[in-house]
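User: When convenient, might I ask for sequence and structure tokens for a protein?

AI:
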Amino acid sequence: MELFLVLTVNFVDLILGAVLVAMLVRAVLSIFMMGEESRFAMLLYYFTEPFILPVRKLLERFGLFQGTPLDVSFFITTLLLGMLQVLLGCIPM
């Protein structure tokens, strides 16, 4: 049972790390205004958007941060995923 827990935590940590790296690359590409027609940009969008969309919908539902020039849901999602990754590291094994 302990091996299953270790493997599961390591797998989730790996996925979270990959998503966070993809979000960082997406943020850097958005600074340079890389077009949406880029296949790499579209791959990053399709990989990261399922994590950002629930936060975006929640913020829209409560009417928070509307009209801001920044995508606050992107930052909140990054923060939440980073905190989850830190919490996973605190699981005693």
The chain has a mean pLDDT of 90.
